Amino acid sequence: MKRLVNIKQVGLVLGASIIMASCGGNATDKTDKPVEVKKYDLKDFFRNPEKSRYQISPNGEYFSYMAPYQDRMNVFVKKIGDAEGKRITEVTDRDIAGYMWANDNRILYLKDDGGDENFALYGVNIDGSNLIPLTKFDSTRTRLIDDLEGLDDYVLVGLNKRNKQIFDPYRLNIVSGELEMAAENPGNIGGWVTDHEGKIRVATTTDGVNTSLLYRATEADDWSVLMTTNFKESVSPLFFTFDNKNLYASSNIGRDKSAIVLFDLDSAKEIKELFAHPEVDVYGLGYSRKRKVLTSISYTTDKRHRTFLDEETKNWFGKLESKLDGYEIGISGLNKAEDKVMVRTYSDKSLGAYYFYNITTDELTKIEDVASWIDENDMCDMKPIQYKSRDGLTINGYLTLPKGREAKNLPVVVNVHGGPWARDRWGFNPEVQFLANRGFAVLQMNFRGSTGYGREFWEASFKQWGQNMQNDVTDGAQWLIDEGIADKDRIAIYGASYGGYATLAGLCYTPDLYACGVDYVGVSNLFTFMEAIPAYWKPYLEMLYEQVGNPEADSSMLAAYSPALNADKIVAPLFIAQGAKDPRVVKSESDQMVEAMKARGVAVEYLVKENEGHGFRNEENRFEFYEAMSTFLEKHIGDSKAQAKAE
Q1: How far is the CA of 522 from the CAs of 181, 385, 562, 581, in angstroms?
Q2: Among all residues, which ones are annotated catalytic?
């Protein structure tokens, strides 16, 4: 099935060697002349691209893309060969979150209101006509289950319209908006899986801790339970085999790292392992709809890698790599005939460009640079690094050093990713490049619990918020000090969501380490955070208790590691940013932290945006946030502080 572009479905060595040169080397070149560093305008990093998110129509005759209209990202369609595209949407309050081609004549897109994440699905013809809200219901979130290939006017969607905690599948007519319930969720189904004919034949259930895999031979049959596992073990369905009899899945049953397997639905057993990697989990498996063959397996270590299973795909992808040497390649669109491809390039120093590739003729045409105003030669290398935690775990991460400065006694921003069950990846990161352009080194680390490194590494994070998870962050900062890269008096900590929690925890529990902190939509109180989670997270609450802590059984621990309840430990200046409509980390999380800080007379800056949710999507709000953040960091860890220290 196709996916809506850029939509996140949320479920919820010390002493190591490293290449020490920054992207520009030392502060002088071979002639001892100072290296000139171009300072970019803040807006260059955070403004909307002129054109992005290119896709190709099923018949291969049109491009679609997103571009600003009244400062909001809207959908445009352009016939291949025409000079100009036509705007087919007119959203002005908030960017469209993602879109897709439903058939040759109709495009679907998702949009929420002010960041509430109740995404509604809209449909519009490629000439701009018949624009209608298809799933716009009160407090209802839309999930795409299947695009129902072969049924041009229908898709299968999940809606929590009937019960806010669970999603029922509906067959949706994308022209008329007619909805027909395909099955009623009995209350415990968390995911639905269709076969290649669009029939719902596999489902996953949860009681909050245990997960069951359900199967039925046809939609007329009753469900049978194939297997039940603790949530720590899983057989995650990817898609049916081409004869619709068995499943390809990613499984960690009997292994630490998830592998790609073939799973027999009759015997409920793994038939064989197709691919595994000794260092990381493997989830990505590609296939050709047209030729009905598996094409490739993808996985991420320090960077993304591919193993090809099909010579035809390997051949044309290899030709692309030779034409685009030096860049990572992503496929953002493929027509139904599978002979025309939309290609996206990127690197750590470039947002890259879109290309149109004709597989048959081997012709590659450049369409658009994503950020033509940024010269990648001015950007900085994101270097993969490793260090050891205090209890012996290998922590992988990335270090970006500012151009034109010696890698010694630098101001550092420790940037902690959100999730926390996610990971940082190699590639162009506007935040990181902006900070490096302002003269800060940036350290990102995949602390324990970060996904992709196997079950043992993930489980090592359970009930460790503010504890060993935070120690991994602290050990990274200390490693930079020991290596001589960081000025120990000029280290800041910054993060969003869980990264915001880690910022507050860092200031609380290692108050002498950080000169300041920036908390962006972060959790401050582990009790109130779990009380306020969205309704559709409720089925997973018991799992959250096992991962974070139970408010009753673990109340002492949660109290000890809730920064809002320990604000008396914070001495460093703090800047907090929050979206008023955030459904995941509600505004009261930030409010109570600000109140606790002010009660003690500790400096705290607070930026609230009424029309934002979990992160700022609107361009003008991004500008304001990063301008305030830049000013805050310069004041507390910038060169002026270094000069005062020297004096």
Answers
A1: 37, 26, 12, 14
A2: 497, 582, 614
